[in-house]
Design brief:
Number of domains: 2
Helix content: 10-25%
CATH topology of the largest domain: Extracellular Endonuclease, Chain A
Structural class: alpha+beta
CATH architecture of the largest domain: 3-Layer(aba) Sandwich
CATH class of the largest domain: Alpha Beta
Number of strands: 20
Largest sheet: 10 strands, antiparallel
Number of helices: 5
């Protein structure tokens, strides 16, 4: 049983903050659907989000342009796509990208300016575009200051790339706050986006939030909100890839890093929980959302719980889910990736609604499981139900800390029997 005394004083404040930020919001969303630039020569063009400068770039709508909708940006040589305006803040920036037609691969970078374009700083790592279908690159910015962005193509010569669906989430600012809906119920390890905290590094994406362990090179935990708005008909993208938004110099687990290990690339936030759009589904295939999972654990027991969770949503509920691995049983990928000894998940179940933290009561259903990460697990996930308190005792995390302490103590002490 954890010590919750400190949480008593902060719970009321956090309830207020997180009820205001009940849904993640975008401070920038640009899909190039306005079109309007047909030549590569540098010029400004007014798009849906504001004025942009496209240099060695245009808006393309041919059959060879990779895009969602009718238009995307097409960039050649060392072209640039630059905002002529600022947004008030930025949390996570996502950009879809693909090669134009049958062109070869190219590399590009995201840059940011906090002084209206007077100077620029690179964000995250260089991205390689090699796929003929749109992939999604994510960058962690997390600034409460006004900022603008520039995308710079840096290699590939006349090889062209398409860029589409550029988004930036609103950043919640200081004081430990976050605008992410996925942290509505709390930040289990008080993770922060600071390279001085490499084993508890917070990454907030539009689709989920996570604490990353640079060393084990897997997430400590991944947290996400699930309601009907996240579910649709988008097919599984299967675009496993390194997360280039990790800080420069950190090891990036790649799409083939688990190959030959006997372990699956086990999603924490499942692909099937993010089917409302291609961007959402693609984001679940970042390797920062994966842990090595034994095939039976991943494909059978874990999958059965994931399917059950979605059935609760279709029945009219919304869920707050956190999952991860516990312990280290060994390493794969030449010692670069830790294999968890166990897997765990905790869930709050609420009827669909608003002001979610304030609606959690002592009668609110919680589900918690803790199971071995091996191929001997039985298929029935219910056999591994425990209390949330038990998972806390095994991981050292403090789940649902934004809920009032009396209610939190009650809902975390019971073992689900439904």
């Amino acid at each position: 049983m954890k010590n919750k005394i400190i949480a008593v004083l902060s719970a009321v404040v956090f309830v207020c903050v997180f009820s205001v930020f009940a849904q993640a919001q975008n401070t920038l969303s640009e899909g190039f659907e306005a079109g309007g630039k047909t030549a590569y020569a540098a010029a400004n063009v007014t798009l849906g989000s504001g004025s942009w400068n496209l240099d060695e770039a245009l808006t393309g709508n041919s059959a060879s342009d990779r895009k969602t909708g009718l238009w995307s940006a097409r960039v050649r040589n060392t072209g640039k796509v630059t905002m002529n305006f600022n947004v008030a803040s930025a949390g996570t920036v996502t950009i879809q990208h693909g090669v134009y037609g049958s062109d070869g691969s190219s590399t590009w970078e995201l840059w940011q300016s906090a002084n209206s374009g007077a100077s620029w700083a690179k964000v995250g790592s260089t991205v390689t575009t090699s796929s003929t279908s749109l992939a999604t690159a994510s960058f962690t910015v997390n600034t409460s200051a006004a900022v603008r962005f520039e995308i710079r193509k840096i290699s590939g010569g006349t090889n062209r790339i398409n860029l589409d669906n550029i988004t930036a989430t609103t950043y919640g600012g200081g004081g430990g706050g976050s605008s992410s809906v996925h942290l509505t119920m709390g930040n289990p390890s008080n993770a922060v986006t600071n390279i001085s905290s490499p084993t508890n590094y917070l990454m907030e994406k539009p689709q989920y939030a996570l604490s990353y362990h640079n060393g084990n090179n897997i997430p400590n935990w991944v947290s996400w909100h699930l309601d009907s708005s996240w579910l649709g008909s988008t097919p599984r993208q299967d675009d496993f890839r390194a997360d280039t938004s990790l800080p420069a110099g950190w090891y990036q687990v790649g799409s083939t890093s688990y190959s030959g290990s006997g372990y699956d690339r086990g999603h924490m936030c499942p692909s099937a929980d993010r089917t409302a759009s291609v961007a959402d589904n693609s984001a679940t295939f970042l390797m920062t959302n994966m842990i090595p999972q034994a095939p039976t654990n991943n494909q059978v027991t874990w999958a059965n719980l994931e399917n059950y969770s979605r059935s609760l949503v279709t029945a009219g509920n919304e869920l707050y889910i956190i999952s991860g691995g516990q312990g280290v049983s060994g390493y794969i990928n030449n010692g670069n990736v830790a294999v968890p000894t166990n897997t765990w998940k905790v869930i709050i179940v609420l009827p669909a609604g608003t002001n979610d933290v304030s609606r959690v009561t002592s009668a609110t259903r919680t589900i918690a499981v803790f199971m071995p990460n091996n191929n001997s697990v039985v298929s029935d996930w219910k056999q591994y139900r425990v209390s949330v308190d038990y998972v806390e005792s095994m991981t050292g995390y403090d789940f649902f800390s934004n809920v009032g302490d009396t209610v939190e103590n009650q809902i975390e002490s019971v073992v689900d029997t439904q």
